[in-house]
Design a protein that fits this description.
- This protein is α+β, with helices and mostly antiparallel strands and about 200 residues long.
- It has a single domain, classed as minor pseudopilin epsh fold.
- About 25% of the residues lie in helices and about 25% in strands.
- The protein has one helix and nine strands, in the order αβββββββββ.
- The strands form two sheets. A five-stranded antiparallel beta sheet has the order 3-2-1-5-6, covered by helices on one side. A four-stranded antiparallel beta sheet has the order 4-7-8-9, covered by helices on one side.
- About 30% of the residues are buried.
């Protein structure tokens, strides 16, 4: 007589109940961890792009701009950097962007593209110091200084924020751009100390 090996119905129900409890307890923590990693990665990516724009401006002795861009070729003016951004040589300092790759440094040409962030509960918005206008583009001079189209020095703060399903801020970081052109990431102990916009 063959002996049948397998699970009884009661063993299967108990196992499924344990798995269900673990999922209910573990999924929110996993989601929070993934969202926290996306927050850190996004703020570091933005800081890296600002650093690249500054260093390319100095290296090429040319104006280099970074701007928000949803299509990877031209600048947008929504103020929503989570849609992506581009870094490009901006020879005429018009901050319009270009999709052409660099072959000559005396014309506008594309240096780097960052695709949009695929997280509807994450926002990246910036405000210039002084006039509190939204940051849609930053231009670095050949000396690595951030200036507007009228050669006025600029500085600002980008707020990188995550939200829960009820549109409440869950975590936040700041990417600070100084008048010298150097940037840094600030991770405050309290997310409410970052000026997060309303949920995206």
């Amino acid at each position: 007589m063959k002996k049948h090996i397998g699970f009884t119905l009661i063993e299967l129900i108990v196992t499924m109940a344990i798995v269900g409890i673990l999922l209910v307890v573990g999924l929110p923590s996993l989601k929070t961890m993934v969202q926290g990693n996306q927050l850190v990665a996004s703020s570091n990516d933005l800081l890296a792009a600002l650093t690249v724009a500054r260093s390319e401006a100095i290296k090429n002795n040319a104006s280099v701009s970074i701007c928000e861009s949803s299509d990877g070729t031209s600048c947008a003016s929504t103020g929503k950097w989570q849609n992506g951004w581009i870094v490009f040589i901006d020879a005429n300092r018009d901050r319009l962007g270009t999709g052409a790759p660099c072959v000559a440094l005396n014309t506008d040409c594309l240096l780097r593209v960052h695709e949009g962030i695929n997280d509807p509960l994450l926002s990246i918005e910036g405000i210039f110091s002084g006039d509190s206008s939204a940051i849609t583009a930053v231009t670095f001079t050949s000396r690595g200084l951030p200036q507007d189209t009228n050669s006025v020095s600029q500085a600002g703060v980008f707020s990188v924020c995550t939200y829960d399903a009820s549109n409440n801020v869950t975590d936040a970081r700041s990417v600070v751009l100084g008048f010298t052109g150097r940037g840094r990431v600030r991770s405050p102990s309290n997310a409410s100390s970052v000026a997060c916009p309303s949920a995206p």
